[in-house]
User: Fold PadR family transcriptional regulator from Corallococcus interemptor.
Amino acid sequence: MARESTCRFAILGMLCREPMSGYDLRSAIERSVGHFWQESYGNLYPTLERMAEERLVELEPEERSPGGRVRKVYRVTAAGRTALAEWLRRPVLPHVERNELLLKLFFGARVGPADSLAQVERSRAEAEALLAALRLIDEDVRHSRKDDPEFAYWYLSIRAGLLGLEAHLRWCDEAREALERLKPATGSTKKRGAR
Amino acid sequence: MARESTCRFAILGMLCREPMSGYDLRSAIERSVGHFWQESYGNLYPTLERMAEERLVELEPEERSPGGRVRKVYRVTAAGRTALAEWLRRPVLPHVERNELLLKLFFGARVGPADSLAQVERSRAEAEALLAALRLIDEDVRHSRKDDPEFAYWYLSIRAGLLGLEAHLRWCDEAREALERLKPATGSTKKRGAR
DNA sequence: CACCGGATATATCAGCCTGATATATCCGGA
DNA sequence: TCCGGATATATCAGGCTGATATATCCGGTG
Assistant:
């Protein structure tokens, strides 16, 4: 029945560290868990409103900037903390992640190895860039936060990212090789494969 | 702007192999690409209707079972084949996959290492089961389909699954170790934890 | 024969979520 | 003073999931 908005819990987790506005939430989430979790404004703002109705969060007493600019800073309530803890203990339900790259490759015979190869190369380049970025974050966190009591928990997600990306790169290399073997005999690349 | 229903292309790809009903499509997809792509009826039926309006697919001439039972068998049109080929060549746009397990672990300090450990163990068991299943499929496909011209393309997705799951298992082991180190060092809390 | 249960088959809906769009203010630098 | 980029909130169409409803077919059991 009622699918449960996971967004709620991302918000609760972040608000437990520090009260924030919807805008702040988005960047805090991006900065800390951005490599495996993101939230859009279109999701955050309505969700925050609902959560306020449900008393999981509440607005901090009107804190306006001098000019009178609107800024809604939310804070987590006791009920919010309870709900978060309850969710953290609940098992993750298994879910098949859609993988558009694999789907395109699966039907790849309809367009030929060159196009599939291009998809793999693009994916590889992207993964390489993500890996480089994550390694920088890794370095940074290992130095600046290694004494934070939450360090071990944060580190788990970085390791997951690193291992996952490395595995993906290995797969890309394998796939590239396999697809290259499919290409029509090397040398003269002109053969127009009329169907 | 118009996000493009990926479901359309999963349907087109499958219908290119053989005309099918919505019901058949669901099981064909489940059987062949189920480990990285699934479609729900709630998505398939309305999508098929729209695609028929757009002339990407068409109904086969009334094919009813003797009792007059309704059964709508769709077939891909020339326009459908073109649309599929065009999509297959278009680059996959990068997208951060949400990972609920990692999110729960990231906030794990709020409930403690035992609960996080349980999440990891569950995920590990699940991955182990998926891996075993995929190895069977691997065996099967390598024997029964190795001469199919599309074999190489199908095989890519199996290898992606195998490498991904193996990497995940390695991460689980790492995570388990890290979380076990966080547990209150006591040897006092009995050896075999009561589950 | 009647009945049952599981597979076949289609359809609809609430609700989550994304990506796009709109709007307005703040503030530092040219 | 004006510009542009960051800050900030809000709304919407449309994709998609998981649940629910409904009905038929068919083989096996009593």
